[in-house]
Amino acid sequence: MMRIRIWTSGIFLMLFLGSFSLWGQVEFRAQVSKKRLGINERLRVDFVMNQNGDDFSPPSFSGFQVVGGPNQSISNSWVNGKRTFSKTYTYFLTPERKGKLKIGQAQITIDGEVFKSVPIDVTVTAAVKNPGETDQDLVNIEDNLHLVAEISKASPYLNEAVTVVYKLYFRSPLSISNPREVDTPTFSNFWSHIIRIPQLRVEQGTYKGESYNVVVWRKAVLYPQKTGALDIEPLTVRLNVDIPTRRRDFFGNRVYRPVQHTLTSGTRKLRVKPLPESGKPESFNGAVGKFELDLILSKESLKASESFQAQLKLSGQGNLKLVQLPQLVLPGTMEVYEPEHSEQVKTYLSGMRGSIQDQYTVVPQYQGQYPIPPVEFSYFDPKEEVYKSIRTAALSVDVYDGPVAQTPTNPLTGAGVKKEVPQTNTFRFIGLNTALQPINGAYFWNSGLFYGLLVLPFLIYFIIWMVIRKQQAFQSDRGAVLQRESNRLAKKYLSSAQKSLNDKGHFYEALERAMFQYLRSKLRIEMDGFSKERIASILAERKVAAEDIKALQSLLMRCDQARFTPLEASAMENDYQEATQIIAKLDRAL
Q1: How far apart are CA 167 and CA 150, in angstroms?
Q2: Residue 560, SS3 per DSSP
Q3: What is the spatial distance between Cα 47 and Cα 58, in angstroms, rounded to a whole number?
């Protein structure tokens, strides 16, 4: 019995000491409601401790916005003689951007000692369809507030215009304020143009057969550059919503509770059809729409060595800014300068309309009657789903009062035709009989000729030295000459963008168009293969520096994004200067 009592006492002592040891261990941790959430969802963060503490310091919550908290709760209970204590600080957060975010360390002081929580990584994805909010009032929001992306055509052809209109629907008893975009679609695999909305207006409309207030938030015209299934990324908007509550104020008016809510339009899918291969003309270069082609000559009769202008103009509705005009073929005896390209294109909800033209300056060298061959242009009509070819009228130019070509030429190609050349004495003006006179030695000595011949070697040496020095200076300045030539070329392409520095939307549209026009001209890319990825691949094959390719891609991406974000004039000027430098570098490299 004595031995049993000793063992029993020992067991009770060990249990008591063990429970005391467990009670004395401090625990302070952070826990989240989920580690992966959409940008339109809420995140609950709890900081829990098992002993009471003071001087609680939360983290900065970088990348999040605090929409609720801190809420403090304390739990203190005794179960079977065992005390359980828990104190919790709760926060409700909404993410401000996508990507990997971190809940930093919080700290608390317990019994004079500082404890810190372990950081938690959270992944924020694109907006989800069902946010799963827990606040009961938000059910009313979801029933009465919608963000919808309406598309004009779900199955377009390659390079056919598709209109996307984002509309915000809401109705009583909700009232909204301070809407702002938190996630803007990039429209990858599309050529996109945003139609400016001067002022947001509330109008009356219907959604699913019910009456709503509607605000047209954004309008975009897209031209798909790739076939197959393409996604239009969701637009996400965050706004303040006033929700009616059951409480009333002193005057009996209903009290509203402000809540911040995030809406998403959801991902829309397009099925882009390839252009049919059957019936495709050889002159087709990717034009889709309906067009007309004209060739206009400023003069039909002129003297040799005078100049005239040949204007090749394409007008109509379609992807005009993505079309390359065919080249004008003229006889070889005419001197043709590089054409001056100009565009007068506006983008409406139905797509691009206007005209583009190439104006050639031509100088005939010899007199004669020169026919101007017709120019052919082909396009695909998406409404009739057929290819069509159009041709300019056959024209001619009469050149008179000038030299006659020594060899007859083919009027279509300008190539020379062989002709027998008569033998003539070309050097008949050179005298063959000489009249030499003997030189008197006394006269030659100390004469001007003597001193001239004496100084001549030094003079020749000085001239050669000057020529070599000039050549060295020219070679050393060659880089500067090439730099000036490249800058001149860049300013030529960017002239339209420079004129629009006071208008952000037009500026970035013209800047992007100038970059694409330069690349098409320099790389000679057909419209079927024209994309940002294809451009980067070709530049890499041409041994262009990787940092220059990266700078080009970054500039094109800023052109897409900068139309929708506020910028200062200095930023636009910096982008213009960077575009000039990029074109100059590419021109030297290519």
Answers
A1: 8
A2: helix
A3: 9
CATH number of residue 326's parent domain = 2.60.40.740
Residues in the chain: 590
Q: CA dist 381 to 280, 388, 527, Å?
A: 12, 7, 16
Q: Which of 364, 292, 371 is nearest to 334 (CA)?
A: 364
pLDDT > 70 fraction of the chain, expressed in percent and rounded: 79
Q: Distance between CA 355 and CA 519 in Å, rounded?
A: 21
Q: With bands split at pLDDT 50, 70 and 90, how would you rate the model's confidence at 439?
A: low
Q: In this structure, what DSSP letter does residue 253 have?
A: P
The closest alpha carbon to 261, from 146, 388, 415, 109, belongs to 146
Distance CA 526, CA 158 (A): 14
Residues 110 and 215 placed together within one structural domain of the fold: no
Residue whose token pair is 């004129």: 499
CA 86 from centroid of its chain's CA atoms: 53
pTM for the model stands at 0.49
Dihedral sign for Cα 53, 58, 59, 64, please: positive
Say how far apart CA 185 and CA 265 lie, in whole Å. 10
Q: Which long-range contacts (CB under 8 A, 24 or more apart) does 448-452 make?
A: none
- Please tell me the number of Cα atoms within 13 Å of 121 on its side-chain side: 3
What is the distance between the alpha carbons of residues 451 and 439, in angstroms, rounded to a whole number?
16
CA dihedral 88, 89, 90, 94 (to 10 degrees): -150
> Averaged over 450-459, what is the pLDDT?
87
Query: Is 61:32 a contact under the CB 8 Å cutoff?
Result: no
Q: Could you tell me which of 363, 376, 356, 355 has the C-alpha nearest to residue 309?
A: 363
Confidence band, pLDDT 50/70/90 cuts, at residue 44: confident
Last residue of a domain, one of 352, 368, 400: 400
- Please state, in angstroms and rounded to a whole number, the distance separating the CA atoms of residues 513 and 402: 42
Q: Could you list the residue range(s) of the whole structural domain that residue 329 is in?
A: 286-400
For residue 128, how many C-alpha atoms fall within 13 Å in the half-sphere facing its CB? Answer: 12
Instruction: For residues 487 and 580, give the distance between their C-alpha atoms in angstroms, rounded to a whole number.
Output: 7
Cα–Cα dist 548/587, whole Å: 11
Query: Rounded to 5 degrees, what are φ and ψ at 222?
Result: -115, 140
- Kindly state the average pLDDT of the residues 223-251: 84
Give the whole-angstrom CA distance, residue 380 versus residue 319: 11
- 413 found inside a domain: no
Mean pLDDT of 31-36: 87
Same domain, 103 and 172: no
Distance of CA 393 to the CA centre of its chain: 39
Residue ending a domain, among 400, 421, 440, is 400
Sign of the alpha-carbon dihedral angle for 507, 508, 514, 517:
negative
Cα dihedral 443, 447, 452, 458 in deg (nearest 10): 100
Inside any domain, residue 85 = yes
β-strand 308-318 against 99-103: which pairing, if any? unpaired
Q: What count of Cα atoms within 13 Å lies in the side-chain half-sphere of residue 120? A: 21
**DSSP character for 273?**
B
Return the CATH number at 118.
2.60.40.10
Question: Could you write out the three-class secondary structure of 114-176?
Answer: EEECCCEEEEEECCCCCCCCCCCCHHHHHHHEEEEEEECCCCCECCCCEEEEEEEEECCCCEE
